[in-house]
Amino acid sequence: MDRFTDKVDLMLLDEASQLPRYAFIAVCHTFPKARPVLIGDVHQLPPYEDPDMPEDLSRYAVGSVLQDASAFGRCPMLPLLRVHRCPKAITELLGATFYEGELVAVKSEAESLFELRSLCLPYTHPLVFVHHNYPHRREDTSLVNEQEVEDAIDFAKGLQKAREGCSVAILCFYKGTVDYSSRRRPAR
Length: 188
Prior knowledge:
By secondary structure, the chain is of the alpha/beta class. The protein has helices at about 20-30, 55-60, 65-70, 90-100, 145-160, 175-185, and strands spanning about 10-15, 35-40, 80-85, 105, 135-140, 140-145.
């Protein structure tokens, strides 16, 4: 990378809300002639902080470059408020919750998924939350909620039965749950 240090004029740093201060310093030092452009959303994930790191050290070393740059108004900003990939109802929900109503949906209203009615789920909104109180168990450093996985698989099977040829993804955020669900997924 050393041979490129003087050849880079512009650095586009995407997902900048997750960019820790120490990494920003390192990349700016590596490419001293480059102008950094931070692309991100302060309402999204912050940089990872080791929970064992002392708070003062974390604030200094990790911080949030994007949050600091936008909060203090030290840099020109170009707000991108048009949402192209998300259904209108979800954009409006996110806009009202996190963006003071400033987001603009490009997509029109989503179709109702009447197939969800047969699963006893709400069907008039593109976003459905299923709240439960199922117990979870710890597996190494992860968590597993077996009943939640079983419900997700049942919903997926029901949706595939009601809507032939559709594909369904079940996303899990804990490694233990991913492992459990991959063992339980239906055969193709």
